[in-house]
Amino acid sequence: MFVYPHPDPVALSLGPLQVRWYGLMYLVGFLAAWWLARRRAARPGSTWTPTEVDDLIFFCALGVIFGGRLGWMLFYGTERIFSDPLSLLRIWEGGMSFHGGLAGVLIALAMFASRRGKRIADVFDFAAPLPALGFGAGRIGNFINGELWGKPTDVPWAVVVDGVALHASQLYEAFLEGLVLFAILWWFTALPRPRLAPSGLFLLCYGLFRFAIEFVRVPDANRGYLLFDWMTMGQILSLPMIIAGTWMIALAYRRREPSGNYA
Fold it and tell me: What is the CA angle 24-99-253, rounded to 5?
């Protein structure tokens, strides 16, 4: 077993300015998404330009930050909206919801598609493989912050936190929702696929991975188990992703519309 070293969440202090590892993980995610999108846009036959990629990442960054923080406040920290409204702005303290961030990004992508005259489905498909490495980096940030631990366990790979052996559910998510999800989607989108198929695969895979990991995560203390004495808020929010992803993949291969991301 590994003893948790309680790392300092502050990576760098410059007087009153503190740069936290959690914030740096978001920067890593945005840079990785930008680099991957630039690579895809540079491929022969791509209908994307470097300038469009730059604008896309900017829109997504705004969607992630505002959607993720607002989603966390609504889903998990409702009480803080009234007791400490300014906490909505303190994203460096942690407390970001994936599902809220996803909603924010979908809105941002729709706005981008409208401004650029692209099909919304094509923009969703192009963006599908881009955020996974950022998901993994964000979960590593959770690990450094010492938050979102799993349940007590006696497995050999447990992490001992203050004398208690726990599932490192943040690292499980970094692996599945980060590396594995990225590998699946990057491989799948290496060739032209029917319109909506990449988006559907993203929703299905992430939903399944998150639903499974929730079984070893400890639910938020102010929420607990919401259904059947075992279903968490994360699982409830992931179910629509699984259903929607399955439906989108079936629809995509039934219609077989060519992607607009390739000439």
Answer: 115
Q: How far apart are CA 106 and CA 101, in angstroms?
A: 9
Residue 15 lies in a domain: yes
Q: Which residues contact 210 (CB under 8 A, 6 or more apart)?
A: 98, 173, 177, 234, 235, 238, 241
Total domains, the chain: 1
pLDDT confidence band for 228 (50 / 70 / 90):
confident
Give the tokens for residue 215.
């079984």
Counting DSSP H helices and E strands in the chain, the numbers are 10, 5
Look up the domain containing 109 and give its range.
2-192
Of 40, 58, 36, nearest in space to 49 by CA: 40
Q: Per-residue pLDDT tens for 230-242?
A: 788 889 989 999 9
**One-letter identity of residue 229:** D
Domain annotation covers residue 180: yes
pLDDT the model gives residue 139 = 93
Examine the pLDDT at 71 and tell me if it is beyond 80: no
Question: What residues form DSSP beta bridges with 161?
Answer: 164
Q: Partners of 26 in the beta sheet?
A: none
Angle, vertex CA 27, rays to CA 35 and CA 178, nearest 5: 70
Position 212 in a domain: no
Q: Within a domain: residue 249?
A: no
Tokens at 218, concatenated: 């400890």
- pLDDT value at 79 more than 70: no
- Report the alpha-carbon distance of residue 106 to residue 68 in Å, rounded: 12
